C-alpha cells in the first residue's frame, strides 16, 4: 500500500477517528488532513507526530478548491457535511482515477445515478460508509446463522447527553425526527413502505450497558432500502427490514417538545422586528453548548465528568427466522472501545465518533488491498465485502462483536468460523 490519501473534513468529530486509524494501521505514503478548521486540524496532526501527515485548507463550498486538494491523490475519504456532497462528486469526477469512501448517506438516487460517469472517470467510491458498514455487516453475519429469515431489525443506540454533540450530529438527530421528512421506511414483502411518522414502529429492545432496555422507534436510515440488495438477504428471502434508534432521555424529551410545540410547521415567531424559526433557534442553542464542551482537548479520564460512562453508539442487529426446522433468533451487538486515541488529549465527540471514523479507514484500506474492487459508486451490500474479515479488522482495533446467547444453543457466530 502506498501513495497519497486526502481526508476531506479530516479533523471532524467523525473523521478524526479515521485519521488516527490511518496513522496507526496504514502504509500510505502521504495523508492530507483537508479542512476549513485549521486550528483543530493542526492540533490533530500534531497529536499524531507522524511525518506522513500534513494539513491543507479547503473550501467545501467550492468544487474547484476541493479538486485542487485532490490533484495527484490516489485515495480520498469524504467526511464533509452532506450539504457539500455534490461539490465533492463534481471535484472527484473532474480529477479522476480516485479510490474513495464516503460518509454521506443522503440523496441515494442522485448519487448512485452518477455511478456510470464515475466509472468512466476511473473512480471507485464506496457510498454510505461509516457506521452503516457495521450495521449492514451485522445483518449479513446474523442472516448466515439461520436457514430462513423472516425479520431483520437494525438498532442504533446513540447514547450521549443533549449538549454532548456537534453541529452535524445535532442537525442529523432533529432531521430524523422531523415530521415532514418522508425517508422513514421499512421493507415488507418486497416493497418499501415509506413516509412513516416520527416516533412510530415503537419496540422495546435491550442494548448492552450503559444503554440497557430502551424504547426504540423508526429512524430515517437507509438499511430498509439497501439491505434487500445484499446477496444474503436475497438468498434467505427476507420478509421484513426496519431500522430503529434509541437516544438518551434528554434527546427524546427535546425532540418530543419540538413536536408538542408544533415547531417544525411554525411560520416563525416574532422577536422584535425579526421573525425567528423556533427549531433553528433551539438547534443553535444546543450547538453552542456542544461547541463550548468541545473547545478543550483533554485526557480521556476527564472527558465526561457529568456521567459514569463515555458517550457512545452501540449498533445491533436482531434477526428472526428458523434453523434446523425450529424457530430461532440471532442478536448481535457491536461496541466501540474507549479510549480509542491511546490516552492522547482529545475531545469528547472525537472519542464518540470512532464508530464512524474507523470503518472509513478500514474500508479504504480494504479497497487499497484489492479486497473490494467495484467501479463507479456502490454501497456496502453490493461491494462484495467479506463481513467476517471486516469484523476481524475492527476487533483488531479494539471494537467488540458480541452475540446475545440463547440458552441451550451454541454460539451461532462461532459455528460459522
| CATH level-four homologous superfamily name of the largest domain | Dihydrodipicolinate Reductase, domain 2
Low-confidence segments, given as residue ranges, are none
Q: Work out the count of structural domains.
A: 2
In DSSP terms, counting alpha (H) and pi (I) runs of 4 or more, how many helices?
16
**Rg on CA atoms, Å:** 21 Å
Beta fraction: 15-25%
CATH architecture of the largest domain: 2-Layer Sandwich
The CATH topology name of the largest domain reads: Dihydrodipicolinate Reductase, domain 2
Describe the structure.
This protein is an alpha/beta fold and 417 residues long. The chain folds into two domains: 4-130 and 355-395, NAD(P)-binding Rossmann-like Domain (Rossmann fold, 3-Layer(aba) Sandwich), CATH 3.40.50; 132-353 and 398-416, Dihydrodipicolinate Reductase, domain 2 (2-Layer Sandwich). The protein is built from 16 helices and 18 strands. It has helices at residues 15-25, 38-48, 63-70, 85-95, 108-112, 115-120, 131-144, 167-177, 223-226, 231-235, 249-260, 278-293, 348-352, 354-368, 387-395, 412-416; strands at residues 4-8, 30-35, 53-57, 75-78, 99-102, 124-126, 148-159, 186-188, 191-193, 203-206, 213-218, 240-247, 269-271, 274-276, 312-323, 326-335, 376-378, 400-403. Strands 7, 8, 9, 10, 11, 12, 15, 16 and 18 form a nine-stranded mixed sheet that branches. Strands 3-2-1-4-5-6-17 form a seven-stranded parallel sheet, sandwiched between helices. A two-stranded antiparallel ribbon has the order 13-14. Helix 4 (85-95) links the parallel strand 4 (75-78) and strand 5 (99-102). The chain starts with a strand and ends with a helix. 47% of the residues are buried. The mean pLDDT is 95.
Amino acid at each position: 500500500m502506498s501513495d497519497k490519501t486526502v481526508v476531506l473534513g479530516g479533523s471532524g468529530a467523525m473523521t478524526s477517528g479515521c485519521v488516527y486509524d490511518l496513522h496507526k494501521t496504514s502504509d500510505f505514503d502521504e495523508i492530507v488532513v483537508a479542512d476549513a478548521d485549521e486550528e483543530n486540524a493542526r492540533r490533530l496532526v500534531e497529536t499524531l507526530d507522524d511525518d506522513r501527515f500534513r494539513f491543507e485548507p479547503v473550501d467545501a463550498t467550492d468544487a474547484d478548491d476541493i479538486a485542487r486538494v485532490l490533484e495527484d491523490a490516489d485515495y480520498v475519504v469524504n467526511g464533509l457535511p452532506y450539504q457539500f456532497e455534490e461539490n465533492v462528486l463534481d471535484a472527484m469526477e473532474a480529477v479522476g482515477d480516485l479510490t474513495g469512501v464516503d460518509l454521506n448517506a443522503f440523496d441515494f438516487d442522485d448519487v448512485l445515478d452518477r455511478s456510470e460517469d464515475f466509472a468512466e472517470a476511473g473512480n471507485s467510491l464506496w457510498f454510505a460508509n461509516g457506521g452503516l458498514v457495521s450495521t449492514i455487516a451485522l445483518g449479513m453475519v446474523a442472516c448466515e446463522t439461520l436457514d430462513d429469515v423472516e425479520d431483520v431489525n437494525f438498532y442504533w443506540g446513540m447514547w450521549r447527553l443533549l449538549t454532548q454533540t456537534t453541529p452535524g450530529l445535532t442537525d442529523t438527530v432533529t432531521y430524523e425526527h422531523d415530521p415532514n421528512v418522508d425517508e422513514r421506511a421499512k421493507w415488507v414483502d418486497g416493497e418499501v413502505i415509506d413516509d412513516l411518522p416520527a416516533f412510530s414502529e415503537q419496540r422495546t429492545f435491550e442494548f448492552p450497558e450503559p444503554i440497557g432496555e430502551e424504547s426504540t422507534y423508526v429512524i430515517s436510515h437507509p438499511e430498509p432500502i439497501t439491505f434487500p440488495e445484499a446477496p444474503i438477504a436475497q438468498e434467505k428471502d427476507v420478509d421484513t427490514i426496519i431500522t430503529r434508534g434509541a437516544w438518551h432521555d434528554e434527546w427524546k424529551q427535546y425532540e418530543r417538545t419540538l413536536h408538542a410545540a408544533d415547531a417544525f410547521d411554525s411560520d416563525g415567531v416574532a422577536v422584535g422586528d425579526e421573525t425567528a424559526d423556533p427549531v433553528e433557534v433551539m438547534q443553535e442553542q444546543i450547538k453552542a453548548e456542544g461547541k463550548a464542551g468541545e473547545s478543550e482537548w483533554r485526557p480521556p479520564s476527564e472527558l465526561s465528568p457529568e456521567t459514569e460512562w463515555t458517550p457512545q453508539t452501540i449498533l445491533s442487529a436482531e434477526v428472526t427466522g428458523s434453523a434446523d426446522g425450529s424457530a430461532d433468533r440471532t442478536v448481535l451487538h457491536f461496541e466501540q472501545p474507549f479510549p480509542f486515541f491511546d490516552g492522547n488529549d482529545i475531545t469528547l465527540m472525537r472519542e464518540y465518533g470512532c464508530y464512524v471514523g474507523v470503518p472509513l479507514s478500514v474500508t479504504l484500506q480494504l479497497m487499497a488491498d484489492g479486497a473490494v474492487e467495484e467501479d463507479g459508486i456502490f454501497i456496502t451490500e453490493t461491494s462484495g465485502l467479506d463481513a467476517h474479515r471486516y469484523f476481524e479488522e475492527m476487533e483488531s482495533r479494539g471494537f467488540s462483536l458480541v452475540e446475545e446467547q440463547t440458552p441451550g444453543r451454541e454460539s451461532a457466530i462461532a459455528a460459522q468460523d
